Amino acid sequence: MSIPNCPQCNSEYAYEDRSLFICPECGNEWSTSTESEEVEVETVIKDSNGNVLTEGDAISVIKDLKVKGSSTAIKKGTNVKNIRLIDPSMNNDHDIECKIDGFGVMKLKSEFVKKI
């Protein structure tokens, strides 16, 4: 296998170190992998009953939820329309974003809701 030129500065002096190619002239490092490393993994978000949730679904809250910074709580049985699914790893394990009357835009965990 021949070592390719540096993709950044086109230097022919690149060398291989384990799974990386390294350019001594500009310091660029790149992977030897020919496959695309960005594999999009679609997470499936399920409600408390195991039903798969999708964008725009209507849900119902299954227990009273305390709201940080507020003296009131979201009551059990509150219905919410038109939910938006978000990445739980970026949002403290909250995977649903929705607008709740009287509270505004909220982030919820799917374990506390059920699909209507």
Task: State the helix count.
Answer: 0
**Proportion of beta-strand residues:** 25-35%
The first-to-last residue Cα distance is: 58 Å
Shape verdict: elongated
Largest sheet: 3 strands, antiparallel
User: Helices and strands: which structural class?
Assistant: mainly beta
Q: State the total count of DSSP E strands.
A: 11
Contiguous runs where pLDDT drops below 50 for at least 5 residues: none
Share of helical residues: under 10%
Q: Measured on Cα atoms, how large is the radius of gyration?
A: 24 Å
Question: Strand order within the widest sheet?
Answer: 1-2-3
Order of helices and strands: EEEEEEEEEEE
Arithmetic mean of pLDDT: 88
Protein name: Zinc ribbon domain-containing protein YjdM
Domain Protein YjdM N-terminal: 3-31
Domain Protein YjdM C-terminal: 45-115
Family: Belongs to the YjdM family.
Chain-wise SSE layout:
Blueprint lengths: L14 E3 L2 E3 L6 E3 L27 E3 L3 E2 L6 E2 L4 E2 L3 E2 L10 E5 L3 E5 L4 E3 L1
Antiparallel strand pairs: 1-2, 2-3, 4-7, 4-11, 5-6, 8-9, 9-10
Protein name: Zinc ribbon domain-containing protein YjdM
Family: Belongs to the YjdM family.
Notable traits:
116 residues; mainly beta; three-stranded antiparallel beta sheet; 11 strands; 0% helix; elongated; YjdM_N; YjdM_C; YjdM; Zinc ribbon domain-containing protein YjdM
Short structural description:
This protein is 0% helix and 28% strand.
Your description of this structure?
The protein is 0% helix and 28% strand. A three-stranded antiparallel β-sheet has the order 1-2-3, with no helix packed on it. Strands 7-4-11 form a three-stranded antiparallel β-sheet, with no helix packed on it. The mean pLDDT is 88. A hairpin with a 3-residue loop joins β9 (96-100) and β10. It is mainly beta and 116 residues long. The termini are far apart. InterPro entries: YjdM, YjdM_C, YjdM_N.
